[in-house]
Amino acid sequence: MRIGSRSVHLRDLSALALAFGLVLATTVYGRAQTPPPVTLVNVSYDPTRELYRAINEAFAREWLATHRQRVTVRVSHGGSGRQARSVIDGLEADVVTLALAGDIDAIARESKRLPDNWQSRLPNNASPYTSTIVFLVRKGNPKGIRDWNDLIRPGISVITPNPKTSGGARWNYLAAWAYERDRTGGDEAAARRFVEALFKNVPVLDTGARGSTTTFVQRGLGDVLLAWENEAYLALAEFGTDKFDIVNPSLSILAEPPVSLVDHVVDRRGTRAVAQAYLEFLYTPAAQAIIAKHFYRPVAPQHAAPADIARFPQIRLVTIDNAFGGWAKAHADHFADGASFDQIYRPSGAPSR
Amino acid sequence: MSAIALGSRSFGIARPSALPGFGITFGFTIAYLSLIVLIPLSVLVWRASGLGLSGIWHVATTPRVLAALKTSFYISFAAAAVNAVFGLITAWVLTRYRFPGRTALDALVDLPFALPTAVAGIALAALYAPNGWIGSWFALADIKVAYTPLGIFIALTFIGLPFVVRTVQPVLADLDREIEEASATLGASRMQTLLRVVLPALVPAVMTGFALAFGRAVGEYGSVIFIAGNMPFLSEIAPLLIIVQLEEFNYAGATAIATIMLAISFLSLLTINLIQAWSRRRFGHG
Question: What are the boundaries of the signal sequence (chain A) (predicted)?
Answer without folding.
Answer: none
